[in-house]
């Protein structure tokens, strides 16, 4: 079996520039339906990360901070798929876990060190693992425990913040006799936090203003300058520590998918229908959907608010 080198290993050896945002965007266009503004946002951040990683791997100092992104949007809107596909394009190891199960050291449950261990196992080398992507889903569920268990929630956020800022973590791997546990430097990691953040828009409404119905503009990315302060206050009220918010390098709000979005995604080049037929063709069969059936599936995904998951 021939091992394919990651982009970090390759660029370290041949000194070529990392992949450009335009190249990442072109690849994502063929993998992810719609979400044009979101793909531009992610393409830029994803291009910055390997460039910084190459500098660090060569011992160069860089003034750039590691990318720490917050993605908000309903479950099934495509947050995980978008980041996973972008990580595949740039050939950077990617590991995802549910933040709802995370605990800080001293508590029973999954620790952040366990997530780093998962990244080590998925990477071709320990060096490459240190420039991977940690994707923590359901971050809103973890931080909302601030209201019920403020000390517990803040302990988890503080531990994550420490890793975002860069620290050395000892990974417990049950080493062989005479050897020690590996040390993991988190300075080169990219962190992505996602969640639905239901109810956040209510926290952003000024008192007496009932015309504001959401926190995302129509194109589904970025924020109006006049609303950034309110978003920060709303996130703090939601349970995020101010220090955590200050460390974020980008916030992306994905729009709620519509029935027309679901219909187009169903028939997209690598969408659910093609994935199904890829298997069926090996059995000499193919699934053909009438327009009425396809519309019914799209409507079901929206009515149940399961969106992409409902389509599958």
In short:
This protein has 312 residues and is of the alpha/beta class. 47% of the residues lie in helices and 10% in strands.
How big is the Rg?
A: 21 Å
Structural class by sheet pairing and helices: alpha/beta
Q: What is the percentage of strand-forming residues? A: 5-15%
| Euclidean distance between termini CA atoms | 32 Å
So what's the overall shape? globular
Describe this structure in words.
By secondary structure, the protein is an alpha/beta fold. It is built from 15 helices and 7 strands. It has helices at residues 7-14, 21-29, 36-57, 79-90, 112-122, 126-129, 139-143, 150-165, 200-204, 225-238, 242-247, 259-266, 272-281, 291-303, 307-311; strands spanning 68-72, 94-98, 133-137, 168-170, 183-185, 190-195, 250-253. A 5-stranded parallel β-sheet has the order 2-3-6-1-7, with helices on both faces. Helix 1 (7-14) packs across helix 3 (36-57) and helix 3 crosses helix 4. Residues 11-16 and 208-223 have low confidence and may be disordered.
Pick out its properties.
312 residues, alpha/beta, two-stranded antiparallel sheet, 15 helices
């Amino acid at each position: 079996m021939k091992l394919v080198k990651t982009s970090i290993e390759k660029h370290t050896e041949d000194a070529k520039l990392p992949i450009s945002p335009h190249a990442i965007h072109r690849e994502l266009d063929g993998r992810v339906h719609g979400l044009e503004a979101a793909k531009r946002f992610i393409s830029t951040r994803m291009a910055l990360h390997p460039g910084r990683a190459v500098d660090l791997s060569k011992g160069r100092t860089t003034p750039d901070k590691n990318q720490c992104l917050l993605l908000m949007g309903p479950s099934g809107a495509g947050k995980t798929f978008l980041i996973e596909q972008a990580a595949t394009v740039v050939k950077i190891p990617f590991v995802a876990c549910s933040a709802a199960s995370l605990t800080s050291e001293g508590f029973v449950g999954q620790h952040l060190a366990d997530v780093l261990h998962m990244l080590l196992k998925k990477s071709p080398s320990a060096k490459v693992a240190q420039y991977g992507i940690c994707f923590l889903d359901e971050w809103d569920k973890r931080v909302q425990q601030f209201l019920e268990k403020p000390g517990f929630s803040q302990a988890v956020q503080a531990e994550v913040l420490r890793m975002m800022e860069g620290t050395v973590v000892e990974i417990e791997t049950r080493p062989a006799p005479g050897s020690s546990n590996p040390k993991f430097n988190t300075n080169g990691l990219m962190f992505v936090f996602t969640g639905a953040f239901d109810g956040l828009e209510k926290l952003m409404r000024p008192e007496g203003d009932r015309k504001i119905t959401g926190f995302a503009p129509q194109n589904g990315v970025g924020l109006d300058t006049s609303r950034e302060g309110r978003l920060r206050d709303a996130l703090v009220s939601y349970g995020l520590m101010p220090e955590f918010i200050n460390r974020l390098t980008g916030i992306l709000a994905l729009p709620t998918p519509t029935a027309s979005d679901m219909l187009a995604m169903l028939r997209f080049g690598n969408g659910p229908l093609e994935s199904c037929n890829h298997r069926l063709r090996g059995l000499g069969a193919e699934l053909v959907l009438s327009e009425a059936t396809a519309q019914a599936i799209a409507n079901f995904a929206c009515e149940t608010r399961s969106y992409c998951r409902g389509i599958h």
